[in-house]
TrEMBL record:
Coiled coil: none annotated. Residues 1-42 are annotated as: Disordered. It comes from the Eukaryota. It comes from Paecilomyces lecythidis. This is S-adenosyl-L-methionine-dependent methyltransferase. CDD domains: AdoMet_MTases (cd02440). Residues 33-42 have a biased composition (Acidic residues). Signal peptide: none annotated. InterPro entries: SAM-dependent_MTases_sf (IPR029063). Residues 17-26 have a biased composition (Polar residues). It holds the Pfam family Methyltransf_23.
Length: 349
């Protein structure tokens, strides 16, 4: 039996994107391509082009055939195995495509110290270390899933960003967090810590996606397995005080923490290569794989630990959701939010 579903919890993310004065709202309509193969799903199309990374992993627990972190066990519900690492690197590619090659939007000038919260495989931190060779880039995480051989100006540490930060106050030129929704219980506290440890004039940037999707042409049916799945994820993560859908609150939290000049940019991200526009089509090719991989990553632990499904029940339900994502007539997309703000200088206070 599925739990009773809440009202659509993330309509506010969409209306916020459209109403927000200073956001570059998403384009109103993505035109689907008419040039496509005859197949009605993507099964027979190109195979995933995921690559594997070698790494040293020392801590793990196994559940439902996936591996999870053991430091602060159970805190974070996504796996940390090779499959998940490949997915995280793919997400980096999608975000970088959306920003047309950029890794951030905050206007950094000659940064010296950068902190990446919940760095995952560390791919963003490593790219930032290459981009800013004079900066030291630190990435922290609960899981030791970062590569061992890295640029000399990058460092990875295993630590819990929900604890007090051991770094000096006013240290960083930039604090960054990406796709942390679901990982954070007390966002205002996290934002206060970012403020405290940034130098005056430094930037805090959050890059987040609601765990939700929309369609403009009605191809996403409100009673579909996919929407049910997304509703369950939101319901269960909210019960644990770790909502997956917080994008509309990022700006007010940043302002409340004291940041100035807070900017919001929102982009549409298609879940499949269905758009006519070549740039969106390319994004959709990768995001399609990410969407399918995300079903188990986000769903397996929550469906079994919180909803109470057996492994078999969860896998059957998740297979139905994944099949819906493979349907070519589905023109779904989600929204990617980039929100950044500046810690004021002493003169401004
Ligand atoms: C969805 S992944 C995003 C990874 C990375 N930010 C990226 O965009 O590629 C979230 C990451 O946050 C880490 N994480 C979750 N809670 C954490 C905590 N309290 N302290 C440190 N890392 C945490 C997880 O282990 C995971 O690697």
């Amino acid at each position: 039996m599925l739990p009773q579903l809440p009202e659509n919890p993330v309509d506010r993310a969409f209306s916020f994107a459209q109403d927000s004065q200073d956001s570059s709202g998403p384009p109103s309509y993505i035109e689907p391509s008419t040039e496509d193969s005859d197949e009605d799903n993507y099964w027979s199309d190109a195979q995933s082009d995921l690559t594997s990374l070698a790494s040293e992993v020392t801590n793990y627990v196994y559940e439902n055939g996936r591996r999870y972190h053991s430091y602060r066990e159970g805190k974070y519900v996504l796996p940390n195995d090779e499959e998940e690492k490949d997915r995280l690197d793919l997400v980096h590619h999608v975000f970088t495509l959306i920003l047309r090659g950029r890794y951030h939007l905050a206007p950094l000038v000659n940064p010296q110290n950068i902190l990446d919260l919940g760095t995952g495989t560390g791919i963003w931190a490593l790219d930032m270390a290459d981009l800013y060779p004079s900066a030291t880039v630190i990435g922290n995480d609960l899981s030791p899933i970062q590569p061992a051989f890295i640029a000399p100006n990058a460092q990875f540490v295993i630590e819990d960003f929900e604890e007090d930060w051991e770094y000096p106050d006013n240290k960083f030129d930039m604090v960054h967090g990406r796709t942390l929704a679901g990982s954070v219980k007390d966002w205002p506290e996290l934002f206060a810590k970012a403020y405290k440890h940034l130098r005056p004039g430094g930037y805090f940037e959050m890059q987040e996606a609601p765990i939700w999707c929309w369609s403009d042409d009605g191809s996403l049916e409100p009673d579909s397995a996919l929407v049910q799945f997304l509703s369950i994820l939101e319901q269960e993560s909210s019960k644990a005080n770790r909502s997956l859908n917080i994008v509309d609150k990022l700006k007010p939290w940043m302002i409340d923490a004291g940041f100035r000049d807070v900017q919001v940019r929102v982009y549409k991200c298609p879940w499949g290569p269905w758009p006519k526009d070549p740039h969106l089509k390319e994004i959709g090719r990768y995001q399609y794989i990410n969407a399918i991989e995300s079903v188990d990553s986000y769903g397996l632990a929550l469906m079994t630990r919180s909803v109470g499904y057996t492994e078999e029940q969860a896998k059957i339900f998740l297979a139905i959701v994944k099949n819906q994502l493979r349907t070519k007539s589905l023109h779904a997309y989600n929204l990617i939010y980039f929100v950044y703000g500046r810690k004021p200088t002493e003169d401004e206070l």
